Amino acid sequence: MNTLSFNQLLPFVLFAFVASITPGPTNLLILGGAVRHGLLAVLPLVLGAAVGATGLLLVVGLGLGEMLLHYPLLQNGMALVGVAWISWLGWKLFNAPASGIEVETSGNCPGAIHGAGLQLINPKTWMMALSVVSVFVGAGSGPATYGLYAAIFLLVALPCLTVWALLGRGAARLLASPRAIRCFNQGMALLLVTSAWISVLS
Fold first, then answer.
1. d(CA 157, CA 50)
2. Secretion signal: which residues (predicted)?
3. What is d(CA 55, CA 100) in angstroms, rounded to the nearest whole number?
4. Is residue 64 part of a domain?
5. Residue 49 pLDDT grade (very low, low, confident, very high; cuts 50, 70, 90)
6. Is residue 22 helix, strand or coil?
7. Local structure of 132: helix, strand or coil
8. Average per-residue pLDDT in the chain?
9. In Å, how far are 17, 21, 145, 199 from 119, measured between CA atoms?
10. Confidence bin at 163 (pLDDT 50/70/90)
């Protein structure tokens, strides 16, 4: 493998930052988890989501991406299944009963498995992985090159997703009443569904 220069990697670092920090289903799940369960409880979700997205990037780069690029109908079908499931989650959240927020130390906070599993049906993550293959790495690159890009992505994604967890803990202080938490749930539901559909339609 040829050594990659800083100038070659910098555009990818910026891409990974934007892909990780902008709102999407994963970010919103982390935000909501931190609001209800606290920062420490949501950290496994952050780790699982980052590792899951990185693993998907590797799988797509090492062969699956080439197949999907040759079969756009399959790619579109997978995206529609993912966005339909996320839309169902949004509907459930929009209609969830509201109560004042207290940090739930023993509740069922989504964990690392949930975070990693979400990446399999997250259209934003699939589009990110396909973009890495087609724009940054290129067809025919070896496993070592994809491994390097995946490691960089993981190092960028972890702090970006942690920022969303910190935002959630800050928001929890403002959600003391049932009315406030209902507005929060409904706003998060609309953002969740919008972010998923934007990933498919853009």
1. 6
2. none
3. 37
4. yes
5. very high
6. coil
7. helix
8. 78
9. 17, 15, 22, 13
10. very high
Tokens 């004042």, located at residue: 100
Structural domain includes residue 41:
yes
CA–CA distance, 117 with 89 (Å, rounded to integer): 14
pLDDT-based confidence at 73, cuts 50/70/90? confident
Query: Has residue 94 been placed in a domain?
Result: yes
Residue pointed to by tokens 């390097």: 148
Helix and strand counts by DSSP (H, E) for the chain: 9, 0
Domain containing 118 equals 21-201
- What SS3 string covers 32-52? HHHHHHCHHHHHHHHHHHHHH
Q: Residue 38's CB: how many other CB atoms inside 10 A?
A: 19
pTM of the model: 0.73
The number of distinct structural domains making up the chain is 1
Residue 2 lies in a domain: no
Distance CA 100, CA 22 (A): 28
Q: Specify the amino acid at residue 113.
A: I
Amino acid at 104: E
